[in-house]
Amino acid sequence: MKKCFILLAVCLLGMTAFGQVKNQHALGARLGGGNTFGSQVTYQYGLSNYNRIEADLGFHSNNDGNGFILAGAYQWVWAIENGFNWYAGPAASLGSWSYNSKYDGSGDSGAYLGLGGQIGIEYNFVEVPLNMSIDSMPLFGFGSTNQHFSMGLSLSLRYTF
């Protein structure tokens, strides 16, 4: 077992040697689908050439209710070729929601915590300071009001600086 752990650690360290975090900051929009929260403001902060953190903040409001989500991820980044990268890492979310039915007056509200990961692919444009990515952040919900699995694809566009 100890040999397997050492081998895994060496492989992971070797993979991080190919990281390509080009810009320290990236700010933009993350547009989601599936059973995810939807649109969010996204920010990435490069920690080194090999990894970064991402924070996403989303608000939702309509006639039936409202809510917010704050999600974060730690990402390892690996180069594919010429501006294309893929990334993966652990993720977590925290949020609140409320619902009021306009038909029968019933309602409910609650808070939630999600734990999971994020995996995606991105392209960093050379000509303009723009980063475009497609990713998925599957999360398992915890708490009395959110005990389910959420997953969907998201498209992100970020200004890099």
From TrEMBL:
Keywords annotated in UniProt: Signal
Claim: Signal is one of the keywords in the record: yes
Native source species: Carboxylicivirga sediminis
Signal sequence annotation: 1-19
Descriptive protein name: Outer membrane protein beta-barrel domain-containing protein
Keyword Signal: yes
Xref: InterPro entries: OMP/PagP_B-barrel
